[in-house]
Design goal:
- The chain has 171 residues and is of the alpha/beta class.
- The protein has a six-stranded parallel β-sheet with strand order 1-2-3-4-5-6.
- The chain contains eight helices and six strands.
- Helix 1 (20-33) packs parallel to helix 2 (50-63) and helix 7 (149-160) runs antiparallel to helix 8 (164-170).
- Helix content is 43%, strand content 15%.
Length: 171
């Protein structure tokens, strides 16, 4: 992907695992392959505390050659990256944003409104695409875009030109 992506397209590599060492190995591989950033999910299988998540993400960010996007998907990981934790991690020089697939529009809005403007926030839950654009998300990283990229691009463009009826129809 990195070889064929043009310079205006960022390549985000999923670098997910349950241990710091395993995530860093994946980040290294992604960097070697030419990725621009690593998307790192909270550890899964075993639950932890917000303090534990903070240590996990900070340790990875401190050692990562690539900038990180946090990936919040608590229905699958069992660990939500809380709003307060996102705010603290947004101050880390190597953590540049969040992909939110929580399915909670209120959470998404709060992350958008309670983090610095330069902290990127992306919606991962396709069903919340147009609503998230309405609350100021920076973009969409939705699974269906892998199968239907033109539909997702059309949805974004319809929203951007103010055609909410078409954007909702494409969802």
């Amino acid at each position: 992907v990195a070889e064929v992506a043009d310079e205006s397209t960022s390549v985000l590599a999923g670098c997910c695992d349950t241990s710091v060492g395993a995530v860093l190995e994946k980040v290294s591989t992604a960097e070697e392959a030419g990725a621009d950033a690593a998307v790192v999910v909270s550890p899964y299988y075993l639950t932890t505390t917000q303090s534990g998540l903070e240590r996990f993400f900070t340790t990875i960010a401190d050692q990562s050659a690539l900038p990180l996007l946090l990936y919040n998907i608590p229905p699958l990981t069992g660990n939500e990256i809380g709003i307060g934790l996102v705010q603290r991690l947004a101050d880390h020089h190597n953590i540049i944003g969040l992909k939110d697939t929580s399915g909670d529009l209120n959470y998404h809005y709060r992350v958008v409104s309670e983090t610095p403007d330069e902290f990127l926030v992306f919606q991962g839950a396709t069903e919340l695409a147009t609503a998230s654009l309405g609350v100021g998300t920076d973009g969409l990283i939705a699974g269906p875009a892998n199968v239907f990229p033109q539909v997702m691009a059309d949805l974004y463009e319809a929203y951007d030109r103010g055609d909410l009826t078409e954007a909702q129809h494409l969802m």
